[in-house]
Amino acid sequence: MEELTEAITAAEFHPHQCNVLVYSSSKGTIRLCDMRSSALCDRHAKFFEVPEDPSSRSFFSEIISSISDVKFSHSGWYMMTRDYLSV
C-alpha cells in the first residue's frame, strides 16, 4: 500500500455499449477502455489529461486536480467530469 501513487476515483460503463468503460483517477486523468480488447483495462483506448503548469504546483495541487466523478450522458455521446473546483 505504500507504493500507491494513483487511485481510481470513479468508474462507469457506457449506457449503450456495455464493453466501453471510463474511469478517472486521483491524478486528474480520465481513461476510456474498450473491454473487447482486454478485460483487465491495464491499457486504455483513449487518455484525457489537462497538462499541469509546473510553476503553479503547490502542496494541494494533486488534491485539487483529482477527478471526483465521471458520467456518460444518456445518449452516450458525451462525458461529464468533476474535480473539486469545476464541472
Automatic annotation (TrEMBL):
InterPro entries named among the record's database cross-references: PP2A_PR55, WD40/YVTN_repeat-like_dom_sf, WD40_repeat_dom_sf
GO molecular function: protein phosphatase regulator activity
Domain of life from the UniProt record: Eukaryota
Coiled-coil region list: none
Entry keyword set: Repeat, WD repeat
Keyword Repeat: yes
A GO CC term assigned to this protein in UniProt: protein phosphatase type 2A complex
Protein name: Serine/threonine-protein phosphatase 2A 55 kDa regulatory subunit B delta isoform
Organism of this sequence: Cricetulus griseus (Chinese hamster)
